Every structure is written in structure tokens, then in C-alpha cells.
Amino acid sequence: MNMWTRGFRGRRLTVALLAVALVVAGVQLANPHSYLAEAVARIGETGYGPDASLTNLTSVDRLQANFNRDAGHPRLILLLSPT
What we know:
Elements: H1 3-30, H2 35-42, H3 60-69
């Protein structure tokens, strides 16, 4: 087997693996209950840049009210301490 034949087989394997990956991604995107389809759908929902906000909560009641207001959406709570 010469060098050209080995290189050609490697390229064919790479193209075949890429094709399989694209088919799997297509099937995942077509399924509305898949993780990938949900992630793509949520990209437009995320708040970043000027739309994102950070709220300094000083009481548990305010935290609870904000948490309950955003039911059904992903929420991130950061507890930071200066020590």
C-alpha cells in the first residue's frame, strides 16, 4: 500500500465521520424534545449584553418574589461573600 492510498483512505474516513455527525445533528434538531433542539430554541431567549441584569437582593422576601416571578425560565442564583 503506497502513501497516496493511505491518505485517500484517511480522507474517506474523515468525510464519512463528518457525514454521520451531520446526520445525527439533523435528527436531533428535528426532534423537538432533544437537548440540542431545546438549546437552539433557547439561544434567542437568553439575556446577555445590555439586556442582562444583575440584581442585588437584600432580603429573602425579595429573592422569593423574583424567583417565583420567573417560573418556567432558567435562573441562576449566585451567593457571594466578601470573605
